[in-house]
Amino acid sequence: MAFLAQDAALQQSDAVTALFVGHSYIDMTLITDVMPSGDEKEVARDFAVSFGGNSVTAAFACAKLGFPPDLLTTMSDDWLGQMFWDMARKYGVTLYPRKVARSSLSFVLPQGNKRAILRARDSHHLRPFMKLDVSTYEALHLDGHQADASLYYAKACREAGVLTSLDGGALRVNTDEVLHYIDVAVVSEAFCGQLKLSALETLAYLKSRGVTVAGVTEGERGLFWIDEDGHISRMPALHVPDDKVIDTSGAGDVFHGAYLASYLKNPKGRWSEHFDFARAASAFKVQHLGNEVGLPSYEDIAETRRLYPPAEAAAEARDSGSSRRA
Fold first, then answer.
1. What CATH architecture applies to the domain 3-120+130-325?
2. Burial of 165 (0-12, 13-18, 19+ CB in 10 A)
3. pLDDT value, residue 312
4. Which end of the chain has fewer CB atoms within 10 angstroms, the N or the C?
């Protein structure tokens, strides 16, 4: 295959509003009650095949919400790479490939609010990353993969006045250096654990690096964050009943893609508005198997907001109902 050399896909669109940088996967998501071992064979109850990767899934979520971005990501000349290329074309995502020998795979096994993941990854880059004109962008999103490209684009976009966003799912080799050029950083509890800091201490660490808006995602407890005015608060997650939760994998990535779409739609909006929009997008994702089916539309997000109140409000409603019954 020679699809990596297709000239049409290497032309930067004048309409592009954002650049995403990360590592691509093909995700195989399986619902199963038992994992076979030895010579055993079992049949999964359900499955989904989709694109995967932190920034990658965020990019597709942003595209579904009307802002198809550029995506600088790992690609290979194999049949899985062709599958990924076809997915990107479907959503209008323009690929800037960084060649690797083999495509990467993720095997995802959801179990309620948890999910186990087994990855097979090729992160040995066979080519340098492409250096694009960042003046055409309004936002940049990184997940820390492709450390050299992440640092280059964080610096270039900061210099050009482009909003920079970081998904801190884990501490990478140059995360501390990259953070000096990041405007919005939303990190995981695992990230805090790697730093050996509490959520509050992590917010202070991020602010000390120059981050303007910082947050720690805490699953069912929602987002613990500091806004553009320096106020610290918790934004509770929407209360999706346990029996509606199918697959939490990719929910954080959809959250990132949705808040960037909200920002691109209304750059002067408050970050509380962008994150409120994104938490509904994430709540939609957990109810669907696989990343692609879990990408919400604006209608899906509105319906999710209508159906599911924030966790604190749901708890208050249950308590009030119990009091009345008593």
1. 3-Layer(aba) Sandwich (3.40)
2. buried
3. 65
4. C
Find out whether 214 and 207 touch, Cβ atoms under 8 Å.
yes
Point out the least confidently predicted range of 23-37, 52-66, 92-106: 23-37
Beta bridge partners of 318: none
The pair of three-digit structure tokens given for residue 294, joined into one six-digit string: 């879990």
Residues 6+ apart with CB under 8 A from 243: none
Q: Domain limits of the chain?
A: 3-120+130-325
Give me the amino acid identity at 56: V
Cβ(77)–Cβ(1) below 8 Å = yes
CA nearest to 292, candidates 260, 259, 254: 254
Is the per-residue pLDDT at 244 higher than 60? yes
- Residues 189 and 200: beta-carbon distance below 8 Å: no
* Cβ-contact 102, 296 below 8 angstroms: no
Q: Report yes or no: 249 and 243 within 8 Å, Cβ to Cβ.
A: no
In 3D, which of 100, 68, 65 has the Cα closest to residue 81?
100
Number of H helices, E strands in the chain: 10, 13
Kindly report the number of other CB atoms within 10 A of residue 77's CB atom: 17
On whether the pTM is more than 0.85, the answer is: yes
Tens of pLDDT, residues 88-105: 999 999 999 999 999 999
Q: What is the DSSP track for 237-300?
A: PB---GGG----TTHHHHHHHHHHHHHHH-TTS-HHHHHHHHHHHHHHHTTSSSTTTT---HHH
Return the bridge partners of 105, or none: 26, 120
pLDDT at 63 over 60: yes
Determine contact, residues 70/52, Cβ cutoff 8 Å. Answer: no
Sort 239 into a burial class: Cβ within 10 Å, 0-12 / 13-18 / 19+: buried
Q: What is the pLDDT of residue 1?
A: 42
